[in-house]
């Protein structure tokens, strides 16, 4: 590969301190922007000469297939920007918008419209019936802003970076027109208000970012939502999946907080982090209904920690009993679509308890959950590979069991 992703020739020898040791940093700039950026990076230097500058990197034409691309601005260091963009090849981006293929992915036309919702500003409402487990929306980040500034970066510089990040986007009005909380006392700039009101906290390449997704950010929160979101570090896109059948005319909702939280911490989190008092159907339901939901969510946490402790003590049959009860509670509370990463626990516990049939059922559920990452990144690929291997080994073991009645022999641990 003679060239680096951002168009510069590779170093003949690796440079140790760079994330991409064979690629020069795209900073300092040349007079012409270096692809994939459509603008020269806008950078501020920190007072320490040894720390890297913090810059805005923009490609105003992404996603490239869109008629009205909102663009992507990343606020980070040059090395980190190159890490993010080296993943974001056009093939991967295309895949984010075409994977999974129908029938799991919905049609070319949007199955929703953004319209006013009483008491919540705007919101996304289904314009047709959406079956459970369909891709409803895919949205590339418009702004990814680091939350890891070193202490010597001044507040006014952070504001300036945000201003430039938004100003350079392909659809500035679209982004500036998103919801704002307008926290008067804090004297926020419009960009800060928009980002603070609409962004999700994300981890990319093990760093913390605020991610703004203009289309997803029109979806309101519900404590018992009918859709869920997946963010891919590989494509920097957020995918919205329906969690149950959604009827035409029904509002599409996601959870901004942990979907398993009981009402008090949930409402506190929504108020402190997102700045609003939740008026979703669960929060406005009669007291008895809210209490029943809280009881189930508390039981969920209690049963999970009991099952974990019992499994650690090697009491797999008791752990399996707790997990059976836990999954009943999950079902009753309608949380089943949101707990995909929990299935590994019952899978392993049932395996250790000698119930290979049930273990296989849960490993298959793990697989379905992992496959939901529309375009899996390297970590998801590895997890998928692990589960595939486990399932193959289980099949062999089940066949052997049928002939000789032995106890489980293989420990289904992660590959080291
Ligand atoms: C990410 S935006 C969602 C879209 C927004 N309603 C709009 O008009 O663009 C978050 C804002 O929507 C409103 N919101 C979202 N979910 C809500 C809920 N469950 N109850 C009340 N307000 C909500 C709050 O004003 C919140 O600050």
Automatic annotation (TrEMBL):
InterPro entries: SET_dom (IPR001214), SET_dom_sf (IPR046341), SET_domain_protein (IPR053185), TPR-like_helical_dom_sf (IPR011990). The keyword Cytoplasm does not apply. Pfam families: SET. Keywords: Signal. Residues 110-257 form the SET domain. PROSITE patterns: SET. It comes from the Eukaryota. PANTHER family: SET DOMAIN-CONTAINING PROTEIN, SET DOMAIN-CONTAINING PROTEIN 5. This is SET domain-containing protein. It comes from Echria macrotheca. The lineage of its organism: Eukaryota, Fungi, Dikarya, Ascomycota, Pezizomycotina.
